[in-house]
Amino acid sequence: MKSPMSKWLSLGALAMALASPFSSAVADTKSVAATAIVEHPALDSVRDGVRAALEEAGYTVGDNLKWQYQTAQGNTATAGQIARKFVGDKPDVIVAIATPSAQAVVASTKSIPVVFAAVTDPLAAQLVSSWEASGTNVTGVSDELELDRQMELVKQVVPNATRVGMVYNPGEANSVVVVERLRELLPTMGMTLVEAAAPRTVDVGAAARSLVGKVDVIYTSTDNNVVSAYESLVKVGNDTKTPLVASDTDSVKRGAIAALGIDYYQHGVQAGKVAVRVLQGEAPGSIAPQKSGELSLYLNRSAAAAQGVTLSQQLIDSAAEIID
User: Fold this and answer.
1) Reported confidence tier of residue 173, pLDDT bands at 50, 70, 90
2) Which contacts qualify for 122-130: CB closer than 8 Å, 24 or more apart?
3) How far is CA 82 from CA 73, 78, 104, 269, in A?
4) Residue 213 CB: number of other CB atoms within 10 A?
5) The whole model's pTM is what?
6) What is the tens place of the pLDDT at every residue in 188-225?
7) Among 48, 137, 280, 295, which is 20 to 30 Å from 320 by CA?
8) Which residues contact 39 (CB under 8 A, 6 or more apart)?
9) What domains can be seen in the chain, in order of their start residue?
């Protein structure tokens, strides 16, 4: 028979277990390795959102979570090296942010769970074969946008635009997909696409200058080279009165006139919640890839003035955030 003291100790242990903020699923230490192709505000926000979702679920660095994060600094060879290192470390989940990093990780492992984020078209990138549960070690969250809505915004910002310029990296699957779709879409809207390749970040400014006089507006997608060097593109836009419309809302804070895009922090939170499901025992192949939800309109009135655009009151009234 237990002594009264033993009884109280047992009851106390039970009470502490019930009061613990962590479920048994998060009591054991888990390991998450995250990587991004490059550092820029949107991808940094994704990373921060992933961390927030993990913490919200009870995974705390230094307690029950081992976290490591590395960026490839825009170099696909480095992305491959990081992917192979992470696979060797055998974490419970690898979070791969942006298409080149996701492709490198998926090519490096068929067993360790992979959650991708900030990937426009995971099918074209050959990460998964459909929007259904993959049955493999891969799932994640796409930041794919409806391009017809993007081009409607272009027409609202520059109503008489007929020639849309786009600077992009022809080596990034995300960007190639957008270019191919715009080639088909724009003629149906009375516009044409004028392309300028920027295979490296240092090429972005020169590519933008090559469009001056040939286009009425420059549209930028979530191309990582372009976003990383956005200030060089803004300088061209301001110097030549060439309007810039982005798909990344952070680019509006950096000098684009407008963007209809997702909140990349919340995108990261969404991806982080997928990672939590995997950490808690779900197979990644049983979780269908997701898309981010609601879009928000951001406007920059000082950029509009610098680039020779007068924003309509209707557009201003519909903005979620206005930067002056």
Assistant:
1) confident
2) 122/289, 124/173, 124/176, 124/177, 125/99, 125/173, 125/174, 127/102, 127/103, 128/289
3) 11, 6, 8, 23
4) 8
5) 0.82
6) 999 999 999 999 999 999 999 999 999 999 999 999 99
7) 48
8) 71, 73, 228
9) 30-143+263-291 (3.40.50.2300), 147-261+296-322 (3.40.50.2300)
